[in-house]
Design brief:
Distance between the termini: 59 Å
Number of strands: 0
Structural class: mainly alpha
Order of helices and strands: HHHH
Helix content: over 70%
Strand content: under 5%
């Protein structure tokens, strides 16, 4: 571990660095576009996990892979990702329905 960068660091420099990091964190947008992009990324990742699991199943069935452990890990990753994606989708639909039922 290289600690040479820490040797010349004063407390004031550290405070400045922390404040700059806080400013960067506050300036990041948490608007709908960011949430939508994260949701779409989650769907893409889930699809990739499903494709990897299917590929592992095919390789195992053809005898190219003899590791049942790798097959099980790929299947579980795909299953967990799909379960999580469906749960998020259900919560989004529930929130949408509740918003639609609000009186203006």
């Amino acid at each position: 571990m290289d600690i040479s960068a820490l040797l010349g660091l004063s407390s004031q420099d550290y405070e400045t660095a922390v404040l700059q990091k806080d400013d960067q964190t506050k300036s990041t947008s948490t608007g709908f576009d960011t949430i939508l992009a994260q949701a779409m990324n989650m769907v893409t990742e889930t699809n990739e996990f499903q494709n990897k699991a299917e590929s592992a199943e095919i390789q195992f069935a053809l005898g190219e892979s003899t590791s049942t452990h790798e097959l099980l890990v790929a299947q579980e990753k795909a299953n967990i990702a799909l379960t999580y994606t469906v749960a998020v989708r259900d919560k989004v639909i529930e929130a949408y329905k509740e918003i639609m039922n609000m009186q203006i």
